[in-house]
Amino acid sequence: MSRNCSIVLNAHIPWVRHPEVPHCLEEDWLHSTILETHLPLIEMLMRLRSEEVPFHLTLNISPTLLAMLQDRVLRQRTLAYLDRTLRLCRDEVERSDVSGFGDLARLYEDRLYRLRTLFVDEWQGDLIKAYTSLRDSGHLEITASAATHGLLPLLMRVPEAVQSQVRAGIRQYVQCFGRLPKGFWLPECAFAPALAKLLKQEGIDWTIVEEHGLTTSPVPSEDFPFIPGETADGLLVFGRSQDSSSEVWSADEGFPGDVRYRDFMRDLGLEAPAEYLSEYLGESGERQLTGIKYYRSEQGENGSKIYDPELASQALEEHSLRFISSRGAQLAALEASGTANPLVVCAFDADLFGHWWYEGTEFLERVFRKTAGRGDFSFVNPMSYLKSNEGREWPEAAPVSSSWGEGGYFEIWTSEENNWVQEEIQKRAEKLAHFVRMFETNRADLLDDAINHQQRCIQIMTKELMLAQTSDWSFLMKNEPSREYAETRTRQHLANFDEAWGVTTQVYADPGILGEIEARNPIFSDLPWNLYEPYG
Q1: Which H helix or E strand runs over 60?
Q2: Which residues are bridge partners to 299 per DSSP?
Q3: CATH number at residue 200
Q4: Rounded CA gap, 5 and 342, in Å?
Q5: Are residues 366 and 431 in the same domain?
Q6: Regions of the chain short of the pLDDT cut 70
Q7: Please, what sign has the CA dihedral across residues 226, 345, 253, 315?
């Protein structure tokens, strides 16, 4: 008998690249998550490995994030972002006599210098290589995901649209990591029954759904979600343990809400005089988060209290012990009730750790260290769990449609603010699928110039439609500060699709038109033209 827990992190940023402007707030989504989540996470995992602390972590890196991590322009801009933040830290250290935050400013400055050295000198700016090293040493399992984080259940009305998302995502994974994936992260943890067959046909062994996706299915097992189920198509489905995950990330009761932790919203970039921040903010002068924060969430008589790393450390000790004790008791109870070799899957967005929850990366480190010392359960990856249970027959599973979005289904992406999106992308998906079928039927009768031209148009339309399908845009349309940008991006990709569609049959159209569209979004540049081939 064995007791196991699995921590799964989903690292995703939508495709955002704006070299046409010196400084783009939305592009900083990428730079800040690299600086605040990925650099500290890799540093921590490599430290555990070098000290031979046993741990296993599962990580999804979305294909759009993989593409941005490889983009030379974005790498340079990430380094510029890091250096800009370092200069601001230096200014803060120098004015510490006035501000009174000298110790914290020096702490941030030292940390940033260390991370910069690792990023530039140790990893040569190549975080994919760093993660691959952790995979090759057996500490990390990396999953594939949909190409642009499209919400697959809502695309299923045109199966070729889902097929293109899955195939392009797997292709990007193979290009980055040199092998085929076994696991597949469903964007927004969103599942629909028809996805099981499609994923299995593409060589995927396992995926994760929300707990209620398994437990409310027509064929529930009393052991769900603490063992995987097998669909009729042979796909193994793990259930995300709601209680176990919520203990960490619940907005109301989760650990990050403790008042001893750093307050995310009290940021220097929102509070310092604009003239002081002028060099950091650049030409736009638009305020933004800097990552330099001096307050904890606790309120005193005179407002927020100053952040105290020692108090935060005490909270981390309490919370890491509570998390481990809870998982140990949970697994022991499951085993006592007859669940053989139970597994508790805790899945989170990666940027919870380090970005939203400053202390979150250290929380993970303490959890891994303390678990290794206790020995009552182990952290495993889904694939290693399946291998250790090889030959075991898993109960039949028929997961129902579900997601980890608010309400547990798809309401966030079909609300009044964004419901037009699905109609627009479905209409174009149907046109593209039909055009590809006609092209394949008539290709033998076409001249080479016509074949090459139409294949190029199909490639462009496939890419732009996938970028319009990004689930983040519909989600952000419900969020007032980002609504305009999200809607603009969606409409731009749809317009790019329409522009390419307009010249599909014009074999001798100005070739600069297609080149101009391709240059707008230099991602998936070698995308196969036949991702929309007939499904089934």
Answers
A1: strand 57-61
A2: 304
A3: 3.20.110.10
A4: 8
A5: no
A6: 1, 97-99, 251
A7: positive
384 and 424 assigned to the same domain:
no
What is the C-alpha separation between 85 and 188, in angstroms, rounded? 31
Do the Cβ atoms of 32 and 289 come closer than 8 Å?
yes
Whether residue 534 lies inside any domain: the answer is: no
For residue 58, which of 173, 147, 183, 151 has the smallest C-alpha distance?
Answer: 183
Q: How far is CA 273 from the centre of its chain?
A: 34
Q: Is 393 among the domain residues?
A: no
pLDDT at 303: 84
Task: Specify whether 378 is located in the same domain as 475.
Answer: no
CB atoms within 10 A of CB 325: 13
Shared-domain flag, residues 384 and 439: no
Within 13 Å and on the Cβ side, how many CA atoms surround 518?
14
**What single DSSP character describes residue 297?**
E
User: Length of the chain in residues, anyone?
Assistant: 536
Do the beta carbons of residue 370 and residue 265 sit within 8 Å?
no
Partnered with residue 171 across adjacent β-strands are: none
Q: Name the domain boundary from 388, 403, 431.
A: 388
CATH number, domain at 440?
1.20.1430.10
Asked, for residue 296, whether it belongs to a domain, the answer is: yes
In degrees and rounded to multiples of 5, residue 391 shows phi and psi of 90, -15
pLDDT for 1: 55
**33, 116 in Cβ contact below 8 A?**
no
Residues 346 and 445 occupy one common structural domain: no
The pLDDT of residue 143 is 98
Q: How many domains does the chain have?
A: 2
Give the DSSP letter string of 351-407: GGBTTTBTTHHHHHHHHHHHHHHH-SSEE--HHHHHHHTTTPPPPB--PPSB-SSTT
Contact 145, 60 (CB under 8 A): yes
Identify whether the C-beta of residue 493 lies closer than 8 Å to the C-beta of residue 467.
Answer: yes
**Structural domain contains residue 143:** yes
Residues 284, 268: Cα–Cα separation, whole Å: 17
pLDDT at 98: 65
Q: What is the DSSP code (8-state) at residue 211?
A: H
Same domain, 423 and 497: yes
Phi, psi (rounded to 5 degrees) for 320: -65, -40
**Do residues 162 and 183 make contact, with C-beta atoms less than 8 angstroms apart?**
no
User: Strands, DSSP E only, in 178-319?
Assistant: 183-185, 206-210, 229-230, 236-240, 295-300, 303-306
Distances in Å between the alpha carbon of 499 and those of 372, 494, 509, 513? Answer: 57, 9, 12, 9
Residues 344, 217 share a domain? yes
Distance CA 137, CA 52 (A): 11
Is residue 59 within 8 A of residue 142, CB to CB? The reply is yes
Last residue of a domain, one of 366, 388, 410: 388
* Pairing outcome for strands 378-379 and 4-11: parallel
| Per-residue tokens: 420 | 């037009």
Distance CA 66, CA 169 (A): 10
Same domain, 445 and 351: no
Range of the domain at 503: 419-520
Query: Alpha-carbon distance 380 to 458, whole Å?
Result: 42
